[in-house]
Specification:
This protein has 555 residues and is of the alpha/beta class. It folds into three domains: 3-126 and 250-428, Rossmann fold (3-Layer(aba) Sandwich); 129-247, Domain 2, N(10)-formyltetrahydrofolate synthetase, CATH 3.30.1510.10; 443-525, Formyltetrahydrofolate synthetase, domain 3 (Roll). Helix content is 36%, strand content 19%. The protein contains 20 helices and 25 strands. Strands 1, 2, 3, 4, 5, 6, 14, 15, 16, 17, 18 and 19 form a twelve-stranded mixed beta sheet that branches. Strands 20-22-23-21 form a four-stranded mixed beta sheet. The protein has a three-stranded antiparallel beta sheet with strand order 7-12-13. Strand 12 and strand 13 form a beta hairpin. The protein is globular.
Length: 555
């Protein structure tokens, strides 16, 4: 049975009943229909004295066309923990319309390890992304309006750095010229669009602790510079208050359920290749106050999502993961071992063994953060015992362990072994989490640290203009910020075709951006784009409403 048919057959319970499992009173749930709701800010504030539960991160090897199933494993582990008698909740990101209609598809898990309602989650959901898009573009409109009506702040229109956003893949909008059409339309200038999930407003919403912190961070957004190079902030444009109003409801985390009727928080959605790749701090903190175990994920491979989870989210929010689950598949190991997608169904132990170098690199990297790592082998029906055993043996040789997981086909029954091992790791209390670099390390050294310790690059290539910009930000007081690397998700390098665990390469930096409100420096590497394009045959071509009034092609 397909994922979407399984999701449609779900025996969903009223969202009030799901909230009741975590002790959330009905009056503190703002329902969106019968199966999803937002949790009130008032209730979240009341939890401040609750003891925190245990935070488990699910990450993965570098993604391949074979599929890894990170979200599926996150959901499966959450269900597995509940099945063995633990009070557990899942925390994942919301889906962007860009990849849904592009090439990636949905983001709610798969098989019998899904979060529902799947279709709504992959489309408009509770409107959070629309609110973020609107708040972001309100600031852009007010900025151009300020310039039009006299430019009292003396903004140098050649140095406007704030771009607009849209939650869609549209390469035609990457670079534009705006304000054309004469005097009535303003002063022409070059501009552009990013995808909403790369918006600084998205990052701010996902890192803010409450509405007051949200408004302060929004006010800290740098939108432009004057001729003397001094920054102009969103608060100078007087946009921060109205932006907060647009985001008030979006700031409240969304509660839904798994197929097994366990609680799942789905909130926020920055991409991990062009943003920091984690669900919101407020959702994670809320879940930790309500559940004994919280299973969350970080986007794409561990070189991007997990690194940013540790160095940005945990650093900023004061979180300490107790264990990391690293998802891998036999099929992905074969692709990393040089096998084409067409040949993945054939047993090839040699290719699996060769491809495990990618797995080993991620294990080594994650251990640098002081957190125990266990490998989850997401099972496919074409996997052979010999291939699975090859991964087990390799993980053991790396000082870790690999556990076969069959949650796609069996739900929680397929992750009980993993759940029991995770509980054992947590109870052993061996985690000694620490970020990879200190706050006071110079910005370029932070970039080099990630490039060399995580990617294994020989050197970082940056021209004098970029180096001077980093030094200038340090002088202005931004030197203590972490760095957010924007890089292809498919490889440790900036070349998406280089799979495995490559060495002997350099990391070229194309551009750096200061996200003063979010609180990090964005480092754009190689050819990565902050506004993706659609593929030759986008998923949208096959999406429609069928004769029964149901959506086809979404997942």
């Amino acid at each position: 049975m397909s994922d979407i048919k399984i999701a449609r057959a779900a025996n969903k319970k009223p969202i009030q009943e799901i909230g009741g499992k975590l002790g959330i009173p009905t009056e503190h749930l703002l329902p969106f229909g019968h199966d999803k709701a937002k949790v009130s800010e008032e209730f979240i504030k009341s939890l401040s004295r609750n003891k925190d539960g245990n935070l488990i991160l699910v990450t993965a090897i570098n993604p391949t066309p074979a599929g890894e199933g990170k979200t599926t494993t996150t959901v499966g582990l959450g269900d597995g923990l509940n099945a063995i008698g633990k009070k557990a909740a899942v925390c994942i990101r919301e889906a962007s319309l860009g990849p849904c209609f592009g090439m990636k598809g949905g983001a709610a898990g798969g098989g019998y390890a899904q979060v529902v309602p799947m279709e709504e989650m992959n489309l408009h959901f509770t409107g959070d992304f629309h609110a973020i898009t609107s708040a972001h573009n309100l600031l852009a409109a007010m900025l151009d309006n300020h310039i039009y009506w006299g430019n009292a702040l003396e903004i140098d229109i050649r140095r406007v750095v704030y771009r607009r956003v849209l939650d869609m893949n549209d390469r035609a909008l990457r670079q534009i010229v705006c304000n054309l059409g004469g005097v009535a339309n303003g002063f022409p200038r070059e501009a552009g669009f990013d995808i909403t999930v790369a918006s600084e407003v998205m990052a701010i919403l996902c890192l803010a602790s409450d509405l007051a912190d949200l408004e302060k961070r929004l006010g800290d957004i740098i939108v432009a510079y004057r001729r003397d190079r001094t920054p102009v902030y969103a608060r100078d444009i007087k946009a921060d208050g109205a932006m907060t109003v647009l985001l008030q409801q979006a700031m409240q985390p969304n509660l839904v359920q798994t197929l097994e009727n366990n609680p799942a928080f789905v909130h926020g959605g920055p991409f991990a290749n062009i943003a920091h790749g984690c669900n919101s701090v407020v959702a994670t903190r809320t879940a930790l106050k309500l559940a004994d175990y919280v299973v969350t994920e970080a986007g794409f491979g561990a070189d991007l999502g997990a690194e940013k989870f540790m160095n940005i989210k945990c650093r900023k929010a004061g979180l300490s993961p107790k264990a990391v689950v690293l998802v891998a598949t036999v099929r992905a190991m074969k692709m990393n071992g040089g096998i084409s997608k067409a040949d993945l169904n054939n047993e090839n132990v040699g290719a699996v063994d060769k491809g495990c170098a990618n797995l080993g690199r991620h294990i080594e990297n994650l251990k640098q953060f002081g957190v125990p790592v266990v490998v989850a082998v997401n099972h496919f029906v074409t996997d052979t015992d010999a291939e699975v055993e090859t991964i087990r043996a390799y993980a053991t040789s790396q000082g870790s362990e690999a556990i076969l997981c069959q949650h796609w086909a069996k739900g929680s029954e397929g992750t009980k072994d993993l759940a029991n091992r995770v509980v054992q790791i947590v109870e052993e209390d061996s985690a000694q989490f620490a970020p990879l670099y200190p706050d006071d390390m110079p910005l370029f050294e932070k970039i080099e640290t990630i490039a060399k310790k995580i990617y294994r690059a020989d050197a970082v290539l940056a021209d004098e203009k970029i180096l001077d910009q980093l030094k200038q930000w340090e002088i202005q007081g931004y030197g203590n910020l972490p760095v957010c690397m924007a890089k292809t998700q498919y490889s440790f390098t900036t070349d998406p075709a280089r799979r495995g665990a490559p060495t002997g390469f350099n990391l070229p930096i194309r551009e750096v951006r200061l996200a003063a409100g979010a609180g990090f420096i964005v480092v754009i590497c190689g050819e990565i784009m902050t506004m993706p394009g659609l593929p030759r045959a986008p998923s949208a071509e096959a999406i429609c409403i069928n004769e029964d009034g149901l959506i086809d092609g979404l997942f």
